[in-house]
Amino acid sequence: DAMQDAAKYAKRVRERSGLSQQEFSNRIEVSLETIRNWEQGKRSPTGAAKALLKILDRAPEVALLALSV
User: Fold this and answer.
1) How far apart are CA 4 and CA 26, in angstroms?
2) CATH number at residue 56
3) Residue 1: how many CA atoms within 13 Å on its side-chain side?
4) Torsion angle of C-alpha atoms 12, 24, 19, 5, degrees rounded to 10
5) Count of structural domains, the chain
6) Under 8 Å between Cβ of 61 and 53
7) Quick check: helix, strand or coil at residue 45?
């Protein structure tokens, strides 16, 4: 199921960053509720959020550094 795959992907990206849901939410400026919805398969990231997750997956250090500026 595509929704569950997206949920697993979102959670994996966050966990690889070493951040809690709250910390991840703050860093990428997405509500905690949205992060939870992604990880529970209730919603899928789209648009810019989906692109950001792909960048975080491929180059997490660079992406997190850019987000901290």
Assistant:
1) 24
2) 1.10.260.40
3) 9
4) -10
5) 1
6) no
7) coil
Question: pLDDT per position in the chain (69 positions), as tens?
Answer: 889 999 999 999 999 999 999 999 999 999 999 999 999 999 999 999 999 999 999 999 999 999 887
Amino acid at 1: D
CB atoms near residue 6 (< 10 Å):
19
**In 3D, which of 64, 45, 47 has the Cα closest to residue 55?**
64
Q: For the chain, state the CA radius of gyration.
A: 11
The single-letter code of the amino acid at 2 is: A
Q: What is the extent of the structural domain holding 10?
A: 2-67
b or e along 7-38 (b: 16 or more beta carbons within 10 Å of the residue's beta carbon)?
bebbbebbeebebebeebbebbebeeebbebb
Residue 33: the pLDDT is 99
